[in-house]
Amino acid sequence: MVANNAYQLDPDPIDPCVLTEQLTHRSRDIWIGNDNMILNTRKCDGKFWDLVNEHPIHPRVLDVIKLSRIYGVYRSYRPVIDRSLITALVERWRPETHTFHFRTGEATITLQDVEILYGLIVKGNPVVGYEPQRSVVNWQNICQRLLGFTPHPQDFKHSSIKVSALNAHLRLQPRLPDWATQDMVNEKARCYMFWMIAGLMLADTSGGLLKLMYLPMLEDITAVGSYSWGSATLAYLYRFLCKASQSTQNEIAGFLPPLQIVAQRDTRNIFPVGLPRGPHAARWFAHFSWTDTIKHVLRVFTDALDSMIEDQFIWEPYSSDIIESLPEYCRFGRDIWRARVPIFCWDVVEVHLPDRVMRQFGLVQAIPFPFPFPFDATHFHHDRRRRPNTNWELEHAQWLHFWNHIDQYVCNAPILHGSLRYDDPYLIWFRRITCFIIGNPISSPQQQGYVPNATAYETMARHIHLMVNKAISLGDNPSMEEFYGFRAMVRDE
Asked: Which pTM does this prediction carry?
């Protein structure tokens, strides 16, 4: 694969019939008016934020966390997750391309987003390793050596530890004594880092358990920051988006805050109140308010995405000025943000496809071509269960080659000036292989603004007649200027 060839035209890499069928799979429940299909968002971060709000982390401990390159997650504070918005986005998620299909084209969460918003390093070693089968006694010894306490046997379950055990330990001595040694500081830092990694960034659907496989990766404090936590977090989020896109699923996990922030930042018709274009997720925590938005109404979000137009989507959210104003840890991996490679998190392997969303980088979008990674429609069913003593580095060897030579797979394209024309080859192709409408227009919410009265119908009729007369006046061969003027008129009406 050569990056410079990533923009050759390809006829139909995806079967349009299959795509439309799968795209509307989850949304069938919305069409029949089933409001119970709002996804449950699973996480175990509530007690973490309660703890650090009551007992701020000691500066010496924070210095260690900063070296780990996951400090931005702590700095972003507790996120507010709207389940209806997350569900509306999941309805438009395509597992085979890892993109959301909107009316205006494809968009997704990229390596750029996780590094800019949360400072999660993307350039580094993949988060994979050997996972031997360990006894409870072994895990107790590891916890004592790395975390500074020995959990009770009942605190363990299936190679995981209960959040309540870690929370109780940290609350026993929330403040670091002045005489604390560096080893004590490191133990305290590992407790917080382990909770952030297993409970926030890589949270699963268990709700109250933290996977212990990540803990040995924190043994060498100086090496924690060498791992690509950003790509691992993104791979894990991709996996849960793929799972949740199935109509049989009723919950989603993974690191959901960047997904919601990107939606709030980029879709103007859902959140009309301007949000600050800051480079860090903490800006949304500081200023975001639900005052002028409708909460927990899935159909409202679905209808808003169904009716979205080009001008209502911010394609390039990070200008060069914003990127340059960021601290170094938020732009360390900028040279690989557009890398078209597999990304890893132990058993999870997903594909990062920035060539499908080049407009998010301010570049021209062309018709993408398929990635050589074979797509398995049931890939999200494969996990670590019944796979003891697996060396995931060997398991993923053929795909790790791409990551280990990531500089060779960075996609490039010309700079985009303005927006895409309606007759752009990419948009023509995209309209053939996707489905624009997810919700059921017959069952729109019976709220003010949705059900027109008689006067509104008369006004609508006059506008329709006006557009018809305008179309007739254009004749059979209108100029491009007249055509786009008419298109703008129809869009506004």
From this structure: 0.80
pLDDT in tens, 269-306: 444 433 333 334 545 443 334 444 444 567 777 777 77
> Judging by DSSP bridges, how do beta strands 390-391 and 130-131 pair with one another?
antiparallel
As a whole number of angstroms, the distance between CA 269 and CA 439 comes to 16
C-alpha count within 13 angstroms, C-beta hemisphere, residue 232: 26
380, 323 Cβ separation under 8 angstroms: no
pLDDT digits (tens, 9 = 90+) for 318-377: 888 888 888 888 899 999 999 999 999 999 999 999 999 999 999 999 999 887 877 787
CB 222, CB 242: distance < 8 Å: no
Decide if 129 contacts 389 (C-beta within 8 A). Answer: no
Q: How far apart are CA 492 and CA 480, in angstroms?
A: 18
Local structure of 237: helix, strand or coil? helix
- CA–CA distance, 468 with 445 (Å, rounded to integer): 29
Residue 353 and residue 106 in contact, taking contact as beta carbons nearer than 8 Å: no
Measure CA 390 to chain center: 28
